[in-house]
Design a protein that fits this description.
Length: 158
């Protein structure tokens, strides 16, 4: 409860200020961004958070699986449990390709898949998925820089 308190208080204030239909939250169980250490009871923490956010009725949870960035895999049992606890829109993200996205949607792990880096480097990502075309690799050395290169200089199939 204490680990979730700040996030829940902010979510509650946002619901009061702008309405629950406009509030979402991004979570990353097992995330290690900025050297965030692992801790016991991570599953229990996120299940509590999902339950409480469901009671608030917020619009969505955006669940990022950071295993592709070197974090521990989020157990599929936790993904299903979050899905069970949170009834509104659940957006999955994190290292997805077309095959994994289709599998997770088919298996009801979430409602939507968010593609970040693949969309940056493939402005026609949907068309590439439809046609089976090869994907361009993102130019990560240019992420979070001030120029256009690495964001707006990718070509489309046509």
């Amino acid at each position: 409860e204490k680990r979730s308190k700040f996030a829940l208080e902010i979510a509650q204030k946002m619901v009061e200020a702008i309405g629950k239909e406009k509030v979402g939250i991004r979570i990353s169980p097992y995330g290690v961004f900025n050297d965030l250490p692992a801790y016991d009871q991570v599953d229990e923490t996120y299940l509590h958070l999902a339950t409480q956010l469901n009671e608030l009725g917020i619009a969505y949870i955006h669940h990022i699986d950071t295993n592709y960035m070197g974090a521990k895999d989020v157990p599929v049992t936790l993904k299903y449990a979050i899905r069970e606890k949170f009834k509104n829109t659940l957006i999955l993200n994190g290292g997805y390709d077309q095959t994994r996205a289709e599998e997770d949607l088919t298996n009801a792990l979430g409602d939507l898949i968010a593609f970040g880096k693949p969309f940056i480097s493939n402005p026609d990502l949907v068309e590439r998925f439809k046609t089976g075309a090869e994907l361009a690799e993102p130019k990560q050395d240019f992420f979070y820089t001030s120029g256009d290169e690495g964001y707006t200089d990718y070509t489309t199939l046509d």
